[in-house]
Model the fold of this input.
Amino acid sequence: MEDMKKHLGQVDVAKVKLMVRVEEDYENGKLSFDEARATLEERVGSCTPAEIALAEQMFTEEDPDQCRKEDIQGKLALFEGILQTGMEGLPADHPLSRYMQENEACKKILLEIEDLVQYPLIKNQWIELYDRLMQVKRHLSRKQMQLYPVLEQKGFTRPTTTMWTLDDYVRDEIRDARALLDADDDDAFIARQQTIVADLRDLMAKEESILFPTSLKMITPEEFEAMKSGDAEIGYAWLDLDVDHRALEREQKAASSPDATFVDELAALLGKHGIAAGPDAELDMKTGKLTLSQVNLMLQNLPLDISFVDEHEIVKFYSDTDHRIFPRSKNVIGRDVKNCHPRASVHIVQEIVEKFRAGEEDEVDFWINKPGAFIYIYYKAVRDEDGTFCGVLEMMQDCTRIRSLEDSRTLLTWGSEK
Done:
């Protein structure tokens, strides 16, 4: 909490505490909605997104069930009319501008849905519309992998817990509706459109009134600049941007690197004492020697994704492959692994780590079988030679093609000859 207040700057803490009390009284049934609204209008007058964000953070000790979708969607209604927002003047390529641009595109799609739902269903029209709507997953993934981690580091953990719940709820609503469309269950599909439109608008309102203004206040320009390569790597929804995220990443590294002379002198000093330094210095592996560059290239070219969580449950590494199965960004590094997963699956993550740490289990696997893809996920407890728990290795692989193989192939066959 203190970290968050430090990053928010000047905040009226007394006002925030009053907002918290009113919201608690409303949620506990001591005040009706109208009574709570009247109290806020009379005693608070007006409030900023940062003050609402700080008030929400004060609920972090509440029961996890309080993060239900219904609770989340009811919170901001109390503050309608007294909330002051404003995010003008950001450059077009600012990460928050990209989110806002996506929201504008999403709002147009929602208008198309409201128009199309009035007419007899023509499946191809809805398929085209839902193909576009489902791009919202990129918008949500960037928030979860890029924006939430930085806020979390500054003490604002509510997006990681509360808003992630709503993100996933909306994503699943769209996925389930698409399944109804594909199954030709026309009546059930059409019946869901009004709720989906309302929930997406509600989510965007929360982003634009609380999440984005608070992020602008708490996150530094340098941190936003560092987000750009990870944002581009995950991708954008509905935006036609030609961004080379690897080139952008190289430029950012060059801009932030220490003085070259100092680095060269340090490398020479380490080399003098036989300590590997630099990407081309050899490292003593258990069975051979490799340079850091070679290690990175090997991991980057494996036909699977690897990540490592240390004994303190902190994400330390993931392999940066071109065929990544699930979106990730460098902002997951250094995070508690529990905060890198949706709330619905956190208990599974905790159980795996606890059983590995206690020595009760050494490995566990899962698989996802869906149309056109079979994803295999494997977790392995990492222990040293003395059996001490050192962390968890996660491996994910798209095994769709492997499962389709039959008979044998013993002759050299290049991809172009298949």
The chain has a mean pLDDT of 83.
